[in-house]
Amino acid sequence: MARNLMGLLSGSGALVTLASELRIFDKSGDAERQAILRAKAAQEIDRICAEVAAAPKAERPDLWLTYHNYYKAPDLIGPTVASRFAIPYVQVESTRAKKRLSGPWSRFAQAAHDAADAASVIFYLTEQDHETLLRDRYRDQHLVHLPPFLPDHRLPEPSDRSGPMLCVGMMREGDKLTSYRLLADALAQVSQPWQLDIVGDGPARPEVEQVMSRFGSKVRFLGMLDRDALGVIYRQASVFVWPGVNEAFGMVYLEAQSHGVPVLAQDRPGLRDVVASWEFPALTPSPNSGPEGYAQALTQVLDDPALCDRQAKHVRGRVADRHLAPVAAQRLWSTLLPLLEIPK
């Protein structure tokens, strides 16, 4: 998503610079690590400010934009730099988590809140984020909806849906592995003939291969693919299967739907913003229904090709209307240009 944002802005004529490569991230709530990162962030602030001050005025930044400020990865740099040079400070996909203001991430959570307070505008990607941003909005801060978007300017070639089902997901411990396990348990309950291609790789691949080993040749592992190679797979996929355990939203859902591939996902808050609804609610199973609910939905999809035909047309139209680069560019620039005092 961050790469999509940079590409979209630069493609619209802006000069986009990655201001820092410092990775501010604390996975485990380690106070010592947080202190080290704060010190490194202070050094980065000094470096960036010195470079900006030394640059000709015409080459100095007009705006600072930070992507994904949250309690494990607060923006410790942007608000200070923006304030020193009196330029607008903007965030995309910021989240607020009051419950983290106590506990091992308390200082980082407060820093994330402070950074969010400093933003003139916060672009939110999902309604779930909007709820907490609205609850804790700072003064007259603007909250603007920016649906997750693909970098494409037009829809790709649609799938002929002649191939196997498709799953695309990173293979790592935690929620991703949980999704793979749930999918395997659901597939074990599906009696219709099926084939599944899996695209992805990662440190948990042995575990994924193990949970899928019961299906033998019905499951094919394709490994990590670049975007062009993955597009070839999308253009043959019949149904996209990925439960999406605790996914923030999931770009793979948009990629699949842009090719007209129906998506079978659980009914989760972040996913509702990117996964087109089926005409039957049972085809978006509740997380509480577990593998059984997912298996029942998949069985119904495999039983009714006409249902998939209707869904294929629906999902492509929804992506075209909401999730392509031109729509995202219009939403971004209609908000950013007034901040820059540049006529539209």
SSE blueprint and pairings:
Blueprint: H1 2-11, H2 31-54, E1 64-67, H3 78-84, E2 89-92, H4 106-118, E3 121-124, H5 127-135, E4 142-145, E5 165-168, H6 175-187, E6 196-199, H7 205-212, E7 219-223, H8 227-234, E8 240-241, H9 251-258, E9 263-264, H10 290-303, H11 305-322, H12 325-340
Parallel strand pairs: 1-2, 2-3, 3-4, 5-6, 6-7, 8-9
Helix pairs in contact: 6-7, 6-10
InterPro entries: Glycosyltransferase_grp1
Protein name: Glycosyltransferase protein
Pfam families: Glyco_trans_1_4
What Rg is obtained from the alpha carbons, in whole angstroms?
A: 22 Å
Give the domain tally: 2
CATH architecture of the largest domain: 3-Layer(aba) Sandwich
N-to-C order of helices and strands: HHEHEHEHEEHEHEHEHEHHH
Helix content: 40-55%
Detail the poorly predicted runs.
none
Please write the CATH class name of the largest domain.
Alpha Beta
Total number of strands: 9
Please summarize the sheet with the most strands.
Answer: 4 strands, parallel
Organism: Phaeobacter inhibens
InterPro entries: Glycosyltransferase_grp1
Protein name: Glycosyltransferase protein
Pfam family, one: Glyco_trans_1_4
Kindly describe this structure.
The protein is α/β, with parallel strands linked by helices and about 350 residues long. The chain folds into 2 domains: about 1-150 and about 325-340, Rossmann fold (3-Layer(aba) Sandwich); about 165-320, 3-Layer(aba) Sandwich (Rossmann fold). The chain is built from 12 helices and 9 strands. It has helices at about 1-10, 30-55, 80-85, 105-120, 125-135, 175-185, 205-210, 225-235, 250-260, 290-305, 305-320, 325-340, and strands at about 65, 90, 120-125, 140-145, 165-170, 195-200, 220-225, 240, 265. The strands form 3 sheets. The chain has a 4-stranded parallel beta sheet with strand order 1-2-3-4, sandwiched between helices. The radius of gyration is 22 Å and the shape is globular. The mean pLDDT is about 95.
